[in-house]
Amino acid sequence: MPLHRRLPKRGFTNIFRKEYAVVNVQDLDRFDAGARVDKQALVDAGLVSNSDNLIKLLGNGEVSIALTIAVDKVSQSARQKVEAAGGKIEA
Prior knowledge:
Number of strands: 6
Shape: elongated
Helix content: 10-25%
Strand order of the largest sheet: 1-3-5
CATH class: Alpha Beta
């Protein structure tokens, strides 16, 4: 029997999986107050390397300025921190 049939088959690759580029709330302090932070602004700032990826905002750290953020997904803790600082989320 050939080797490829003798070895066990393991794992599964989901072809419909969505890959997200992760941005933390603490990384947003480099933007000016009142700025609109979208995918292009994150690429220009160097926080996201590929503009083709979807972007998810996570709540690691603190934000001290009010921003308008337009990303694909937002964690609940990140949403609370941005809104507590006076900003808003456009997801």
